[in-house]
Write a structure and sequence with these properties.
4-stranded antiparallel beta sheet
Length: about 100
């Protein structure tokens, strides 16, 4: 299983843009219902910092880039965030129903 985290700080004037795009993306995921994908987006309370968690079953190619809503989300990130988010691989050492 592959687990990644992405972190970014959103420019104050683009928080609403990012959250609207996230809403559209998750509505699309509810419709597409891709198997083997777990995906979450969260804001750190009291900040403009956002975290994305992505987990894919072994051998599964990430389906997100095939969805127009994800491509729109990615296109907006270039102007919405203060610096490019850097994906990092997580090594899960313990989990209860999260991963």
């Amino acid at each position: 299983m592959s687990t990644r985290i992405l972190r970014a700080t959103v420019k104050p004037e683009h928080v609403a843009d990012l959250e609207a795009a996230v809403g559209k993306l998750f509505a699309a995921l509810d419709e597409y219902r891709p198997e083997g994908l777990r995906y979450a987006s969260a804001r750190v309370d009291g900040t403009r910092d956002y975290v994305v968690l992505l987990q894919l079953d072994d051998g599964l190619e990430n389906p997100l880039p095939t969805y127009p809503e994800f491509l729109a989300f990615q296109a907006g990130l270039g102007t919405w965030v203060e610096s490019a988010p850097t994906p990092e691989v997580l090594s899960v050492v313990g989990s209860y129903r999260l991963f």
